[in-house]
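Entry 14. Ran structure prediction on the chain below.
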Amino acid sequence: MNATHCDVMVGEQIKRDIVHQHVSSDLLPTETITNVTIFDYDDTILPSTWLTQVFSQTDTLSTEMLYQLKKVDVTASALLREAIKRSTVIIVTNAEEGWVEHSSSIFLPSVFTTFCNHMFGKGSIWFSVSSGK
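Output, structure tokens:
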């Protein structure tokens, strides 16, 4: 599934028709959307660049790295849960479909649990894979 590029200033109110224009309708809930929070996944929720750099030098994460990743996991999952309370949450990525679920299950288990508890009809998390256009 592909979404098109959409530039919106931070804090700008997004009209429902703009959201529907840029996010596939099968990803959105059927009820009226009043608030939307959009998070980019890579390097916003998951520290992808850092992980790529680490794994280019070693096959394992040190105890300190695991501790830091756990802090990111706990903080990001708390942020997502708060956003879910207040809005429909859309996670966007330029990665291939399934990347968010797969990588979060490995590196961010609390985030992954939050996704599982609130995605696709159970709550208010929706994924969009950008076409990069």
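Confidence is low (pLDDT under 50) at residues 1-12. Will compare against last week's run tomorrow.
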